[in-house]
Amino acid sequence: MNLSSSLAPIVDKLKELGVTAEESNISEDTTATNETTTTKITYPYEFLLRIPKADLHIHLDGSIRVSTLIDLAKEQNISLPSYDEEELKQMVFPPTYTSLVDYLAGFGYITKVLSSKQALERVAYEVALDAYDTGVRYIEVRFAPQLHAIPGKLSIEEIICSVNLGLERAVKDADELDKLSGEEEMYNNRYNGEYNKDTVDKLEMLFSGKVHPYNAAAPPHHYGIICCAMRFFLPDTSPYYQAFWEVHTGEDQHRVFGLASVALVTAINNLREKGKCCHGCGSSSIEKEETVHNNDYILPIVAIDVAGAESGYPASDHKEAFDLAHSSFLNKTVHAGEAYGPESIYSAITDLHAERIGHGCNVFKWNIIGEGEGRGGRSKSNKEKEEISDDIKRAYVENLTRYLGGMRTCFEVCLSSNLQTMPELNGDLRGHSARKMIQEELAVTFCTDNTLVSHTDMVKELTLAAEAFELSPGQLRNCVYNGFKRSFMATKRYRAKRDYNRKVISYYKKVESEFGFTGYNTE
Q1: How remote is the C-alpha of 250 from its chain's centroid?
Q2: Which of 18, 45, 90, 335 would be a feasible disulfide site paired with 307, CB 3.0-4.6 Å?
Q3: Residue 76 to residues 18, 116, 192, 384, 422: CA-CA distances in angstroms?
Q4: CA 166 to CA 68: how far, in whole Å?
Q5: In this predicted structure, what is the pLDDT of residue 518?
Q6: Is the pTM of this model over 0.85?
Q7: Residues 464-477: pLDDT tens digits?
Q8: d(Cα 359, Cα 485) in Å, to the nearest integer?
Q9: In this structure, are residues 338 and 305 in contact, taking their beta carbons and an 8 Å threshold?
Q10: Is 358 exposed, middle or buried (0-12, 13-18, 19+ CB in 10 A)?
Q11: Dihedral through CA 447, CA 453, CA 454, CA 459, nearest 10?
């Protein structure tokens, strides 16, 4: 079936669901003036630091501290191009890249050092604490355990549990910083021998004069874990994948990709059923009082994702795995529409039940429908492309975006990352599709993606968004709230998440009031 005939029933099906292309607002222009903001507002750094934030799209490996990468490489005798922090950044993690492939090249060094439980726990702790130091209150850390697993030495379960242990420890330390933030008397008496070095160090950080986000009135810190399947891998991608290929010799490669995802979801489900991991950790701190009297722990593996090259490696390869996740009440987020057209996003929501979309930058680009490679790497012929009329393409995108909006499918937008991997932006975010997403009132939240590789943090991401899209206080608030509302927070009862979000909203309004941003409605 050619692409033209395959798109037509999709448009018809969407119309059956009550979405049509009448009065289409789809255009290639994403730089239109933001009509809801009459005066450009500049948000102080301290305001963006202190407001409570959620980061729903942050990769564990891509957010390692460069100093830790060097330390772990030395400990494990792993060769790096340089062991000088600044030199390594320039050589492997430069400010700009020529493509997504170039952007991903540095991950090979990081994966090599994350091959022990101790290394995984350390990096998870540091990634979370670095986020909490920028005012993030809730974080969903994602990674592919298959890239780190070593058959007979380091299992999928041990990897997830080690990461969980590091994240739990970060929550404990960050919550303690909140409590200590008002203890000025304790700080004045810090050297009287009553306090240990760890507490003294925390007090020094809080009262050193440096601006920080910690406050006893703020909502507590929490986290979730997202495990990533891979759209594509080779035997030499990791020891785990090498063993997987050996077991499935002779299988169609796309079938192998799908089977590996099924194996991952099965391992996750087995671990979730245990309720706690091999370390005995896993209780959700959101319900501390309840878990004191109840050993029914929650191990916060909150979702499955699929990442990697989109072109030639469709989401449909992983349908069986995501059907299994869906039937097991495991949430789904999918990298889609970053390096492929709107069809990739459509496949994510129809084949993989995606509730959130990672990136989704190309959602409005009707003009690239039919470009790229299909399953098996076959490029579309010119004849196939020409058979799809512009009207069909526009109707497809109009119906797709309306459906996404109605379902509140959230876009996890990563601006710094996109600036590095999308040369068509020419360094100007005013042409980024997030502007139109916000204008169309789709669910959008801003995320970091990879803090090391993209040289960013959540304050920088919000600063970029506010300046490029001239966000009003209400629009900014909306985007921040979306991060909490569309999170996959692990709680025994939904009401616990609702209660937590109310605390977030209350504290956000308190900070707004302090900086004079009250009186702005949520647009």
Answers
A1: 35
A2: 335
A3: 58, 10, 40, 52, 35
A4: 14
A5: 75
A6: yes
A7: 999 999 999 999 99
A8: 18
A9: no
A10: buried
A11: 60
